[in-house]
Structure formats: structure tokens, C-alpha cells
Predict the 3D structure of the following.
Amino acid sequence: MFVSFFPRPKLLFWSMLLWTAAAVAFWYVLGRDLGAHVGLPPAADEAEPVVGAAIFWSKPFLWFYVYYAVCVGIFAAAWRVIEPHPWANWSILGTALILFTSYFQVQVSVAINSWYGPFYNLIQAALSKSAPVELGQFYGELMSFAGIAFIAVTMGVFTRFFVSHWIFRWRTAMNNYYMSYWDRLRVIEGASQRVQEDTMRFSTTMEGLGINLVEAVLTLIAFLPVLLALSVNITELPFIGHVPYALVVVAILWSIFGTTFLALVGIKLPGLEFRNQRVEAAYRKELVYGEDDPARAQPPTARQLFANVRQNYFRLYFHYMYFNVARIFYLQTDTIFPYVVLAPTIVAGKITLGAMNQILNAFLQVRTSFQYLVTSWTTIVELLSIYKRLRAFEATIEGEPLPEIDRRYMEQKEEALS
């Protein structure tokens, strides 16, 4: 699954993590200030924050783009020497581009969060008549948002377009790799389905999960400092009282609770999804044989195979029922949770409308990042079932024993033939 597309995957991923950590550390220690030598200095501490689309071509941002490109270029060049690979441009440079566009989209969310403050404060001033507000000011704020939104749409469309091509290249690499071992793989149950369908489903599922995971991590990195700064206005929590950095603490604890809770509730789902793929494959395979051989797919055999499909689906429906009850209940409670947390501060009138919306949005972004497993669990379950099926291919290619569930199937098949 990975060796077909990435050069020496384990070493590549570990080196990528280490190189990223080193690049980030160097950026904060020295790299950020190096831009001053080429006319791209960091923002001054006393400077007013830039609100609107202009932030993306400000000097600090332009220097970060240059710094990122240099770091990626060094890493990619080193791997061209260490391990030349036919898919290196897509797997290394393509991954770097996806990480950059994901980071950029997170910064768009940060820019929108910064826009919330002055915009909603302007609305509050207009509605309460506490300060004069001109119509031109109001339209100006809307135009500022429109500029950010245009950039968000452009980058979002480009990212999805590129990721789709990147994922299909990965599927192509897997397909070519497995087909080169077809003589050894063809004896595995559902081999044709695993090559054609499972590689497709693996790549498309990885597209959604991978991008969402990257965005969740980057959003967490970007918004935790924002939430930390906004926590200054929140001094008390309901039923608890004073808690330092209350918003950050509550967001982390609530998200960890939801993730752990739903992971435990849905612990049986991956195995059931895998078994579902197996019984479907057995039924489909018998029908395919029946197209050419009148002795195959006879009604008693077809009924039994379909009964296996029915039994597994009904078990799956039952387990998904209580899982969805838990998941939907948690997500609905999550909608009002931030208002419960902010209740003492709102009632006491300690924050403005603009600050409240900034807090709610930042709180939502941090919670959503921590709740990656909560919102993606059903997709993760599907990916795990696909992984288990493709793992049999990997075991055969590497000369390892088949996974237990595949060994049981092969034994049952041999008994039936004998």
C-alpha cells in the first residue's frame, strides 16, 4: 500500500517528521528573523494586526512561503540521492504541496476569526447606538470578508483538484505493484476485487481522511494560541469557578472524552466491516462463476451465500444503531456546550459581541480538531476493513503467513473442494 508510492516508507515518514520538527524549531529560533535580510521582516510587536485578505501577501507571510519552499527543496533533493523512486515527485513534492495548501486554508480560518472581532463590535455599536456607524464602514467590513472568502474558495478548489490527482497516482502505483505479483496473488479470495475495488476505495478513503487529519492538526496548532489569548476574558466556569486558561482546558477535556467514549462504543465495527466485505465477495464471486458455468450459483448455494450477507448486515445495522445514538447525542450536546461554558461571562456582561463570536469560532475550531476521531470514526472503520483485505496481499508478496481471517477462509475453501 505504501512501498509502491513512497520510497522506503518508514524511513521517509520518520525523516519527514524529524525534518519538520527541525524546520519549525529553526523558524522560531532564528529563521523568522532571517527574512529581514531580504526585505521581508517579521511584523513589529507594536504593529496593528492586519485584518482581511492583505494578510496573505504581507511580508511575514511572503517570507514563510520562501522558507517553506527551501525546506521542501532540501528534503526532496536529499531523498532523490538516498532512494530514487519513480513516484517520488508525486509522493514527496505532492505531499509537501498538500501540506502547504492545508496550512494556507487554516490560515484563512484564522483570518476570518480575526475579522469577526471588529465586524461584530461594529454591529453591536450600531444596534446599541453607543458609537456612530457609517454605512460605508459596514460595507467595507463585508468587502473585507469577501476578499478572504474569494481566496478560501480558490485555494479550496485547487486543493481538492490536486489531491484527487495525487490520490489517483497512489492508486495507480498500488495497481501496478500488485499486478506485478499477480501470479502469486490470484489464489487469494477476491483477488480481482482487492486489486480493482479495494485499491480504489483505499485511495479515495485516504483522500478524505488524510486531508481532514492534516487540517485538524494544523487547525489545532493555529487556533490553540488564539484560544489561549481569548481565555484571558474567561475567568470562571459553571459549577467549577476559576480555572486558568479555562477555554483551552475545557476544549481538550471535552474532546478527549468524546473521542474515547465513541471509540469504545464502536470498537466492534472494524471487524464487522471486514467480514461484510468477505461475505459480499463470496456471494459476488459465485454469481460471476454462474454466468459461465450453469452448475455454479444454483439456488440453494446462492440462498446460503446471500443469507450470510443478510446476517452480517443485520449485525452491522444493530451495532451501528447504538453507535449512532451515542455519536449523535454527543454531537448535539456539543452544539450548546460552548454557551454553557461562557454562560457566567455572558450573563455578567464581561465580553463584547465581537469577542464572544471570536471565542465561539476559535473554541469550535479547537474542539473540531480534537474530535477528528469522533467525526471520522465510521470512515476509519471502513478504511481499517480495506486495510485488512489488502494486508493479505502484502503478506503474500513478503512471504509472510496470511492474516488469521484469510487463513480460515482458505481452510474452509480447501475442505469444501475436498
